[in-house]
Write a structure and sequence with these properties.
Rossmann fold; about 950 residues; Serine Threonine Protein Phosphatase 5, Tetratricopeptide repeat; mainly alpha; elongated; 5-stranded parallel β-sheet; 49 helices
Length: about 950
């Protein structure tokens, strides 16, 4: 049986290396002291900042500290460097390393995966795909207020409920006026596509959403281990994007608390930004690394086996005490030591003099060209004869390895590049071109595996990495000719996100430095500064739109991308101006036509939108997303036949799930519930864990009166995503329709807790309170809903109805009048206002009464899909006006024509109950036969009531 206590070969090697560590005794002792101190001690150093010039050994010391933390403090450690470009990437890198040590952050990883999915969906949705909102369950899409029938709106507050498919058929419940107000346009648009307020927050503020979960699980790990140490190396490059986040998790409780036994080590060249850390600098343990003392330098030389005093003096003189150079110059072989002091040698030649093989010497120089290496990049950089020497290269003193890749120390790489640029300008261009071509081939190979359009390649991390390296080498080889193409790529990088923009800006700065090109250096620095602004992408694009280096076509693209940013933030006029500029520069730029068409759609200028979208489709006839956007425009115009045709065509060209969901929504709006169910089921089959599709199908079952199926789908959706306020609200609605008021109250209250501005849930809960006779609580909810949205017609109608029951007839009359002013096309507040006039003993103008009857009659005749609902409105109007024969006629026709009359009968029966409370007794008695008729219909149609859902 194998001895489980035996060390691995790798651990033995690491211990040997640590045993040979020379110098930095003071710093080693300082960290060792922290390893044995109690974390709760006032003298415990919990945040180190190691800083000093390049080459003084900051990374080496940090690695030594990491090894000490593991060995002497039984610590779990992580080590990240400049491969990360924002706080989200930092948390992800830490999570990956912790998982390798058996400390997986499962909740964080799950939420991060959700973020990636929602971000992808939201990015595409904000590009203009999918509907903006649904005005009501059965109302005319695109109208500013819902048009819903009788008690269906008043009793259960359906005005804002709807399935809102964006990319991935994202769904939400929002009031249409919320979007129209535009108080926070991005949030409103995402709320129209994401399933819950939590998802919107996750997409808009991922650091705020992810960090609490990250810290919670960090706390769990720290509770089960003596120490957890997080190292952040090369902080001079990452500090700009990590400073605020690290400051907050250490010194504030905004995201939660940090366990006392968690240490953080920052390692970089400069001092910390006093604007961020200034108030807490006295809490930070500063460790300034300087060049080795002569004693430390001699100790390192001796450790390398050099005893010749002349050679030792030369090493000390050449290195200047810089630990990196002391180490490298001490590693030369005996033969090289004899000529070490040759004054004709350059610094780089001294670095490599220990290597007697000229082929390997050339290999080391060639491998300085890439930003970093793996074996593929190595083979592309070197001659065929050196193809198998990659392990040798990785063992060089100035090469560090991590996560399967390696890179040169910046000081050594910079010196080697400067040497080669000066010695052989032609060789410089040839080597960079060779590497650029290699990355270009790998990029093309990645494209062949990506089943998407060229502008979507940016979503693939592997493709982005190849594209960035290809661009770097093109810039180094031919700065003047490559800059225009690379700046165009940066337009796409800005469109992809600030982290990607920041990485590309750093790449341009690096290319400017390595190629000694001042123009490139200025470009990189300007873009880096722009990316660090709060509106980084917009700032960068505003620089790029006026860049003389860009071609007219590239500037047009920059205008179109900036127009998109303006559009999704609700700055429509600025968006239109950018799209106009783009079209002037590039008359055939399809993104400009589609973007302007989408902007017109959001502004309600549907005819203008159709003109631009038709043009975009003509320029790119196979673009399913453009066709779907036009379909959404038709849907908002209530041109449902055209909308269905476009959605169906888009599905044929690009069968994405969100398009299926859009068509399902359209089917549901026109009452074709079986087709809607089929589309939602197809989407669910594609992704059974997508809670939005399940919720959408569940709502369709609600409208059909299929309670079992509705509760099953909605409960499953909530199980998958407990924060899906929309699904919780829909389940509350189902309970409400089933007269299960306690369950309805519980769900509506939970939905409001998840989303405090959820006006529809407030109205629904207010209605339940009203039915239970809890009028004060009902009034509080309705007041809250109206305070949040002064154009919410149904809230005014419901509050007016409540005032009627409370005997506050003047207040009721005012609310019904306001509801009519908001939406003159809805019959519900008209007949309720007629009753209010009767209760006050005032006559309503007869012509006005006849006008609403005429309007509703014409609507019923004009739109067969609305006929049952409109006729039910007419039935209630005639009841309010005591025209009983007309009322009976309209009720019979409505029940005969409705394909799924259960819900319609239920809502109308509830409406009649209200009328009995507010009509004069003689009129109230005439309502009874209608109630009995509706009860018989429901008894024949109602499916079995299920057990209460979990």
């Amino acid at each position: 049986m194998a001895d489980q206590s035996r060390l691995s070969r790798q651990e033995i090697i690491r211990r040997r290396q640590r045993g040979g560590f020379v110098g930095r005794r003071r710093e080693i002792s300082r960290f060792m002291e922290s390893c044995i101190q109690a974390p709760e001690s006032n003298s415990f150093e919990f945040l180190f900042h190691v800083h000093g010039n390049a080459g003084v050994g900051k990374s080496t010391l940090a690695r030594q500290w990491e090894a000490m933390a593991r060995e002497h403090a039984a610590a779990v450690t992580t080590f990240v460097d400049d491969d990360i470009h924002d706080a989200v990437e930092a948390m992800e890198a830490i999570s990956i390393q912790l998982a390798r040590q058996g400390c997986a952050l499962k909740k964080f990883d799950k939420l991060l995966m959700t973020y990636r999915q929602r971000r992808h969906q939201a990015d595409a949705a904000l590009e203009g795909l999918g509907p903006e909102s649904e005005s009501g369950i059965d109302g005319a899409a695109g109208s500013q207020t819902a048009s819903v029938s009788g008690r269906m709106a008043a009793q259960i507050g359906l005005a804002g409920l709807g399935m809102l498919p964006g990319v991935g058929a994202l769904t939400a419940v929002i009031d249409p006026q919320e979007v129209a107000r535009g108080a926070d346009r991005i949030r409103a648009q995402l709320s129209a596509r994401l399933a819950s307020h939590t998802d919107v927050h996750l997409v808009m503020k991922p650091v705020e959403a992810l960090t609490p979960v990250f810290l919670e699980e960090i706390g769990d790990i720290a509770q089960h281990h003596p120490r957890l140490v997080l190292f952040f190396d090369t902080y001079e490059r990452t500090g700009a994007v990590l400073d605020s986040w690290l400051h907050d998790i250490v010194f504030s409780e905004d995201f939660g608390t940090l366990p006392a036994n968690v240490q953080i080590v920052l390692s970089g060249q400069g001092r910390l930004n006093s604007a961020v850390w200034g108030n807490w600098l006295n809490q930070i343990s500063e460790v300034l690394l300087e060049e080795f003392t002569e004693e430390e330098s001699r100790a390192l030389v001796a450790a390398k086996g050099i005893t010749d005093s002349q050679v030792v003096d030369v090493v000390l003189g050449l290195s200047g005490g810089l630990p990196l150079l002391v180490d490298m110059l001490s590693s030369i072989g005996p033969a090289a030591q004899k000529t070490l002091g040759d004054p004709s040698d350059t610094a780089v030649e001294r670095f490599l003099r220990w290597e007697s093989d000229p082929r390997r010497r050339e290999t080391a120089l060639r491998c300085a060209f890439p930003l970093q290496l793996n074996e593929d990049v190595y083979r592309a950089a070197v001659s065929e004869a050196s193809a198998d020497d990659y392990p040798w290269l990785r063992g060089l003193a100035f090469v560090s390895s991590q996560a399967g890749r390696c890179r040169y120390h910046p000081t050594v790489r910079s010196s080697m590049l400067r040497l080669q640029r000066g010695l052989s300008p032609i060789g410089w261009v040839e080597q960079h071109t060779r590497l650029a071509d290699s990355f270009g081939r790998w990029r093309s190979s990645a494209e062949s595996t990506l089943a998407c359009e060229s502008n979507l390649y940016w979503r693939d991390a592997v493709w982005r990495e190849h594209r960035l390296n290809e661009s770097y080498h093109r810039l180094c080889a031919m700065p003047r000719t490559a800059v225009a193409e690379v700046l165009e790529q940066i337009v796409h990088a800005a469109d992809h996100g600030v982290a990607t923009l920041h990485r590309w800006a750093q790449m341009v700065t690096q290319a400017g430095h390595d190629s000694d090109d001042d123009a490139l250096l200025v470009w990189g620095q300007r873009l880096e500064s722009a990316g660090e602004q709060s509106d980084g992408a917009l700032s960068a694009l505003s620089i790029l739109v006026s860049a003389p280096e860009l071609s007219a076509a590239s500037r047009a693209l920059a205008h179109a991308v900036r127009g998109r940013y303006y559009r999704v933030t609700g700055l429509y006029e600025q968006a239109l101006a950018d799209y106009e500029s783009a079209q002037v520069l590039a008359p055939s730029l399809v993104q400009a036509f589609h973007g302007r068409g989408r902007t017109y759609q959001l502004m309600g200028r549907y005819d203008d939108a159709l003109t631009d979208l038709n043009h975009a489709i003509g320029l790119s006839p196979g673009k399913g997303g453009f066709v779907a956007t036009r379909g959404e425009t038709y849907r908002r115009m209530s041109r449902f036949v055209d909308a269905l045709a476009d959605f169906t065509r888009a599905m044929d060209e690009d069968p994405q799930a969100w398009i299926v969901g859009s068509r399902g929504l359209t089917y549901r709006q026109i009452g074709r519930y079986p087709e809607a169910l089929a589309d939602f089921t197809r989407a669910i089959n594609a992704d059974p864990q997508d809670d939005r599709f399940l919720g959408s199908r569940g709502l369709t079952y609600v409208l059909m009166g299929h309670w079992n199926e509705a509760l099953d789908d909605l409960t499953q959706a909530i199980t998958i995503n407990p924060n899906n306020a929309w699904a919780v609200g829909c389940r509350g609605l189902a309970h409400q329709l089933m007269d299960r008021h306690d369950e309805a109250l519980a769900d509506h209250t939970r939905a409001i807790a998840l989303r405090s501005d959820y006006s529809t849930a407030l109205v629904c809960r207010g209605v339940v309170y009203q039915l239970l006779g809890r009028y004060n609580e009902a009034l509080a909810d309705l007041n809250h809903a109206i305070a949040g949205d002064h154009q919410y017609e149904t809230a005014f109608t419901e509050r007016g109805r409540l005032y009627q029951l409370m005997g506050r007839h003047e207040d009721a009359l005012a609310d019904f009048t306001q509801a009519i002013a908001i939406n003159p096309g809805d019959g519900t507040p008209y007949y309720l206002r007629s009753i209010a006039f009767q209760q006050l003993g005032r006559e309503e103008d007869a012509a006005h009464r006849q006008g609403i009857i005429r309007t509703l009659t014409e609507e019923a005749a004009r739109a067969d899909r609305e006929s049952p609902k409109v006729r039910m409105k007419l039935f209630l109007v005639f009841c309010a006006q005591a025209e009983w024969a007309n009322a009976k006629s309209q009720l019979n026709r409505a029940l005969t024509d409705a394909p799924y009359p259960l819900l319609l009968a239920k809502s109308t029966l509830d409406e009649l109950k209200h009328l009995q409370h507010v009509l004069p007794p003689s009129a109230a008695d005439r309502v009874t036969p209608f109630q009995e008729q509706l009860q018989r219909v429901m008894a024949q149609l109602r499916p079995p009531v299920p057990r209460p859902s979990a």
